Amino acid sequence: xxxxxxxxxxxxxxxxxxxxxxxxxxxxxxxxxxxxxxxxxxxxxxxxxxxxxxxxxxxxxxxxxxxxxxxxxxxxxxxxxxxxxxxxxxxxx
Length: 93
Prior knowledge:
Elements lengths: L2 H21 L10 E3 L3 E9 L2 E8 L4 E8 L4 E9 L10
Protein backbone atom coordinates (compact mmCIF):
# COMPACT_ATOMS: atom_id res chain seq x y z
CA UNK A 1 0.00 0.00 0.00
CA UNK A 2 1.54 3.25 -1.05
CA UNK A 3 1.19 6.72 0.47
CA UNK A 4 -1.43 7.84 -2.08
CA UNK A 5 -3.87 5.00 -1.31
CA UNK A 6 -3.32 5.42 2.44
CA UNK A 7 -4.14 9.16 2.24
CA UNK A 8 -7.28 8.51 0.18
CA UNK A 9 -8.39 5.86 2.68
CA UNK A 10 -7.87 8.15 5.67
CA UNK A 11 -9.73 11.04 3.96
CA UNK A 12 -12.62 8.73 3.03
CA UNK A 13 -12.86 7.42 6.58
CA UNK A 14 -12.81 10.98 7.95
CA UNK A 15 -15.60 11.99 5.53
CA UNK A 16 -17.76 9.07 6.68
CA UNK A 17 -17.18 9.91 10.36
CA UNK A 18 -18.08 13.58 9.81
CA UNK A 19 -21.21 12.62 7.85
CA UNK A 20 -22.43 10.30 10.62
CA UNK A 21 -21.61 12.92 13.28
CA UNK A 22 -23.67 15.47 11.36
CA UNK A 23 -26.66 13.12 11.36
CA UNK A 24 -26.41 12.51 15.11
CA UNK A 25 -26.40 16.18 16.16
CA UNK A 26 -29.33 16.82 18.53
CA UNK A 27 -32.11 19.11 17.40
CA UNK A 28 -32.10 22.72 18.52
CA UNK A 29 -34.85 23.97 20.75
CA UNK A 30 -37.79 25.12 18.69
CA UNK A 31 -40.45 27.63 19.59
CA UNK A 32 -43.39 25.31 19.04
CA UNK A 33 -43.85 23.84 22.47
CA UNK A 34 -46.67 24.13 24.99
CA UNK A 35 -47.66 22.55 28.27
CA UNK A 36 -51.05 22.93 29.88
CA UNK A 37 -51.75 21.88 33.41
CA UNK A 38 -54.52 22.68 35.83
CA UNK A 39 -52.83 25.68 37.44
CA UNK A 40 -50.19 26.73 34.91
CA UNK A 41 -49.68 26.91 31.16
CA UNK A 42 -46.30 27.33 29.49
CA UNK A 43 -45.67 28.19 25.86
CA UNK A 44 -42.37 28.84 24.10
CA UNK A 45 -42.26 31.48 21.39
CA UNK A 46 -39.77 33.06 19.05
CA UNK A 47 -39.23 36.66 20.17
CA UNK A 48 -36.64 37.90 17.66
CA UNK A 49 -34.09 36.32 15.39
CA UNK A 50 -32.04 33.86 17.48
CA UNK A 51 -34.02 34.74 20.61
CA UNK A 52 -36.71 32.62 22.22
CA UNK A 53 -38.81 33.11 25.30
CA UNK A 54 -41.22 31.23 27.49
CA UNK A 55 -44.62 32.57 28.51
CA UNK A 56 -45.94 31.18 31.79
CA UNK A 57 -49.59 31.76 32.66
CA UNK A 58 -50.91 31.31 36.17
CA UNK A 59 -54.47 30.16 35.47
CA UNK A 60 -55.69 30.88 38.99
CA UNK A 61 -54.55 34.50 39.26
CA UNK A 62 -54.68 35.34 35.54
CA UNK A 63 -51.10 36.61 35.52
CA UNK A 64 -48.70 36.00 32.66
CA UNK A 65 -44.90 36.32 32.74
CA UNK A 66 -42.38 36.32 29.91
CA UNK A 67 -38.91 34.90 30.54
CA UNK A 68 -35.93 34.83 28.19
CA UNK A 69 -32.33 33.68 28.38
CA UNK A 70 -29.66 36.32 28.94
CA UNK A 71 -26.25 35.05 27.77
CA UNK A 72 -24.41 37.74 29.76
CA UNK A 73 -26.03 36.72 33.03
CA UNK A 74 -26.13 33.06 31.93
CA UNK A 75 -29.65 32.62 33.18
CA UNK A 76 -33.31 33.44 32.72
CA UNK A 77 -34.49 36.99 33.15
CA UNK A 78 -38.03 38.26 33.59
CA UNK A 79 -39.00 40.47 30.66
CA UNK A 80 -42.54 41.27 31.70
CA UNK A 81 -45.26 40.32 34.18
CA UNK A 82 -48.82 41.47 33.58
CA UNK A 83 -52.42 40.35 33.96
CA UNK A 84 -53.79 38.53 30.91
CA UNK A 85 -56.64 41.03 30.72
CA UNK A 86 -54.09 43.76 29.91
CA UNK A 87 -53.45 42.05 26.56
CA UNK A 88 -57.11 42.56 25.64
CA UNK A 89 -57.52 46.07 27.03
CA UNK A 90 -58.63 48.77 24.63
CA UNK A 91 -55.99 51.54 24.81
CA UNK A 92 -58.19 53.99 22.85
CA UNK A 93 -60.88 54.17 25.54
